[in-house]
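Quick entry between incubations.
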Amino acid sequence: MVTYPGSQDDRDALWALAALDAEAVPVWHEERELPDLDAVVLPGGFSYGDHLRCGAIARFSPATAAVREFADAGGFVLGICNGFQILCEAGLLPGALLRNESLRFVCRDVPVTVERDDLPFTTRCTAGGRLVLPVKHGDGRYLPPPDLDPAQVVLRYVDNPNGSVEGIAGVCNEAGNVMGLMPHPEHAVDPLLGSDDGALLLASLVDAARERVLAAI
Amino acid sequence: MRATVLVRPKPGILDPQGEAVGSALGHLGFEVEDARVGKVIDLEVEAADAAAAKAQVEQMCERLLANPLIESYEVEIVG
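Done. Structure below.
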């Protein structure tokens, strides 16, 4: 879990991953090398104040360079909200996230449809099924590049809250080991908080990371 | 050397900020057909001459100041 100055959901994500039996550790943004990890999560928040463009400055932090190396070697990387924006700015994911069409900050639970259940982030989900996850963002309107392969769309909003093109809520890279999404799975791992659907995504990642470790032994 | 960078949303990219500004101007009685909102970045750079300054600032635009997927940029060297 990488913490940038301005990250705010890192502790929730650490808590959620620990609740799913993962050994989650914080990594400060100035770290040039990652500890021995099986997966990386970039949390939500407002890294570096979201100045210039969301994620534009976090892209150049030492930890992001280490995350890029980790991803290039096939490591699993999940970017949530601001983490998604950082991965797009860093070129690890296609597209860009722009100001919501309504110009309003949206903060509510939204249903999303799962497009793929064969990724390290979605194996506990069912393609075509729905998850209810909270969104909270002002800059979540996803704009794909003109040549985006439709197979890279992982999640779509049922009722588009921000004007994203084709209702895209989450995408992965071509290799399928890097994923970003605007909704917050780490805020939805306990029914007391309205939904525990987020646990399906995070637990899929924990499963995949564990399998990768076992396969390497 | 002083440089001014203009960053604009690319044509065809939905600009809700521009739409809001255009609509507000309409409420004030101005006839505005289209409004787009971009950014101005003023820089003071070290460079041997204007051409070198421009080349340097263009690199800054490519790497950080503009996102080529959604924005275009223009560099002006003020001197």
